Amino acid sequence: MAERRQERATLLDGARVAEEIKAEVREEVARLEREHGIIPCLVTVLVGDDPASAVYVRNKVNTSIALGLRSEHHALPHETSTEQLLALIAQLNARADVDGILVQLPLPKGVDAMRILEAIDPAKDVDGFHPVNVGRMMLGQTALPPCTPAGIIELLDRYGIAIGGAHACVVGRSNIVGRPVAQLLLQRDATVTICHSRTRDLAALTRQADILIVATGRVALIRGEHIKPGAVVIDVGTNRVTDEETIRALFGERAEERVNALRRRGYTLVGDVHPAEAEKVAGYLTPVPGGVGPLTVAMLMRNTVMAARQRRLRSN
Ligand SMILES: Nc1nc(=O)c2c([nH]1)NC[C@@H]1CN(c3ccc(C(=O)N[C@@H](CCC(=O)O)C(=O)O)cc3)C=[N+]21
Ligand SMILES: [Mg+2]
């Protein structure tokens, strides 16, 4: 008898997995305080007033507090100089009570972002962006992996999706998602293809993928024709869409809820994968919102606790 494919992809509930991870982190935080008198502290730094960045940072602050971490937030004006930021980071590096330092990206054009990231003590680099931590990750010795890539691996593991031997195709080569997630997948014995804006015949490569990870920031780059039937599709895009036309094209018969959200908030969040088309072809699919985004925050919390334990107790 011919194999019957399911009608629609199973949604991978990143928000639910993030709640599980956060519950584990909350317990670990309580244990650290009870047994060692340690309360891990995450410092967030936001430069300028980009509204999306403000939402993300507020989410990180609120989550820290909800899990029993200490949170300290620095909001700096758009005009802040590289030197002023370096001075703040030097202070935070020197403070024994600070476990994690997160400088929200993107930084304003006038700031030398690479100099800032390199100034953060690698032991407090909870984003995993410092060259030392990137290098350690390449060697498979990572203590503080970048949050979004680590969250994606965690999601696959918790859904029992096998990585070893799978063909994973990563679309996008950013330092914060594409390159590092390709590396983590390789360490787990996937065969990895990395595609980008100069790739010829993208669909020919993505269609071979058992696991397709998309992190480009381009709305609906990945259509049904890019996806192998039954594949696992991880959509890392978080794009704000403000026009009703686009939303109707992306969500088809399910557009109404999104259109209402748009009218309420002025935008709705969509990924890099065409949701209505992908649902008909993929076996598993992460939604946007409620997929990879919440996992990023959960892994940041886990990294902060790990940084506290390693730096203060010199153990894992
Ligand atoms: N130093 C630094 N570290 C980062 O990790 C970092 C950064 N800079 N700059 C920006 C990107 C983006 N990012 C997200 C985090 C959470 C959601 C998230 O929680 N999204 C929710 C929805 C949020 C909403 O409604 O807007 C979701 O997808 O369900 C999204 C995106 C972290 N980043
Ligand atoms: Mg991210």
Automatic annotation (TrEMBL):
PANTHER family: C-1-TETRAHYDROFOLATE SYNTHASE, CYTOPLASMIC, C-1-TETRAHYDROFOLATE SYNTHASE, CYTOPLASMIC-RELATED
Domain Tetrahydrofolate dehydrogenase/cyclohydrolase catalytic per the UniProt entry, residue ranges: 12-127
One biological process term in Gene Ontology: methionine biosynthetic process
Pfam families associated with the record: THF_DHG_CYH (PF00763), THF_DHG_CYH_C (PF02882)
Catalytic activity line of the entry: (6R)-5,10-methenyltetrahydrofolate + H2O = (6R)-10-formyltetrahydrofolate + H(+); (6R)-5,10-methylene-5,6,7,8-tetrahydrofolate + NADP(+) = (6R)-5,10-methenyltetrahydrofolate + NADPH
Functional description taken from the UniProt entry: Catalyzes the oxidation of 5,10-methylenetetrahydrofolate to 5,10-methenyltetrahydrofolate and then the hydrolysis of 5,10-methenyltetrahydrofolate to 10-formyltetrahydrofolate.
Keyword Membrane assigned: no
Complex and partners: Homodimer.
InterPro entries associated with the record: Aminoacid_DH-like_N_sf (IPR046346), NAD(P)-bd_dom_sf (IPR036291), THF_DH/CycHdrlase (IPR000672), THF_DH/CycHdrlase_cat_dom (IPR020630), THF_DH/CycHdrlase_NAD-bd_dom (IPR020631)
UniProt-recorded name of the protein: Bifunctional protein FolD
HAMAP family, per database record: THF_DHG_CYH
